[in-house]
Amino acid sequence: MKFAQDIIIKPLITEKSMDMIADKKYAFKVATDATKPEIAHAVEELFGVKVAAVNTINMNGKPKRVRYAEGKTAKWKKAIVTLSADSKTIEFFEGMN
């Protein structure tokens, strides 16, 4: 069994994710093997909110180069969590706007 802290790695703080907060949508970096029901349960457990939907995106690594060495950044998974209309907001994101 996975713990909620192992599924939700960190919140994503970008301009686009801050604009989505008005629609009760929040973006998180999640574990690559996490499923949508696991992500929904983890967000409900950690923040005490009701989740209406979860959309996930697998982000590929970007090519990077340092002098002569070439490589890629790591692949990761992004989750956009939509809260239900009667749910409270996540307090962590309140002071970010």
Question: What does this 3D model show about the protein?
Answer:
With 97 residues, this protein is an alpha+beta fold. It has a single domain (4-89), classed as RRM (RNA recognition motif) domain (Alpha-Beta Plaits, 2-Layer Sandwich), CATH 3.30.70.330. It is 23% helix and 36% strand. The chain contains three helices and six strands; from the N terminus they run αβαβαββββ. The protein has helices spanning 4-7, 15-20, 36-47, and strands spanning 8-11, 25-30, 51-59, 63-66, 69-72, 76-83. A four-stranded antiparallel sheet has the order 1-2-6-3. The longest helix is centred in the middle third of the chain and has 12 residues, at 36-47. The mean pLDDT is 93.
